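pinned: reference chain
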Amino acid sequence: MLLEVQDLRVSIGKVTPLDGVSFALDRGQIHGLVGESGSGKSLTAMAIMGLLPLIGGRITGGTLAFDGHSLQRPEAELRKLRGRRIAFITQNPMTALDPVRHIGGQVDEVAMMHLGLDRKAARERTIQILTQLRISSAETVVQSYPHQLSGGMKQRIVIAMALAGEPDLIVADEPTTALDVTVQAQIIHILTSLVQERGLGLLLITHDMGVVAQACDLVTVLYAGRVAEKSSTVALFEAPRHPYTTALMASVPRDDMPLGALKGIPGSVPSVADYPAGCRFHPRCPRKTEICERVVPPLVVTDKQSALACHNPLEGTRP
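pinned: its structure tokens
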């Protein structure tokens, strides 16, 4: 298995925003990590990348393993993995790019640092990658500054930086945020093609169930720092069982949806400092009973790819 996250717990100060997150990802797979803002998706990514100290967090339980080896290791060792074997795509490409440097130099630097290429070879590789990402006139684009490019083009440059070190795993944190629907579809197509062509593993973090349906093989649904449901994408969309999963899916517009059927989820994800007792979704759940308010539902493995944490699951019908 390429990436294994087992019972991960992350604390920041006196609060524990991630509490027992588990999932796995292999080469050639796209695993979607989905949930509303505040569910713990980006924090999970930061834990995997070994960047928690930057935000004051620490791993207080569970394990993280990459290609059979622990990711809980000294910073000096993690630096050898980051960029080379594990790459990170942020949700805001503008903050990932140096505004005063040419695009080409920023992509070149990754290949020079991690692959040991000289400047000429690195530039040739940069142009090759940009061309593969369907960027026309790559020789001209490498001379551009970030502010001269569109949002979709900047996101492709960030993807190029991730690919420059020939990684085995890409962690993409909301890579289509703030992009229009057409550009979003292009970015997702690029990422899925890369997985198929190169045999990469891709952890795709998103709040968009439509993106999950389009791109992912497996899905883990997070709510308030805990796993609500895990499944293959096909099984999840055909027969979701957790009330939160069905609520997320009901909030996604579909061609066959009758007028007025699109629904939002009442309420909001609770603050990490004020998580409710029992099931954390119960204040918003239409199926809650007395046990939901006082007992944490265990994450029960239902088959090799599926698990569920709910006292009153649905029978599994599409919303």
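why pinned: Residues 181-198 form the longest helix (18 residues). The mean pLDDT is 92.
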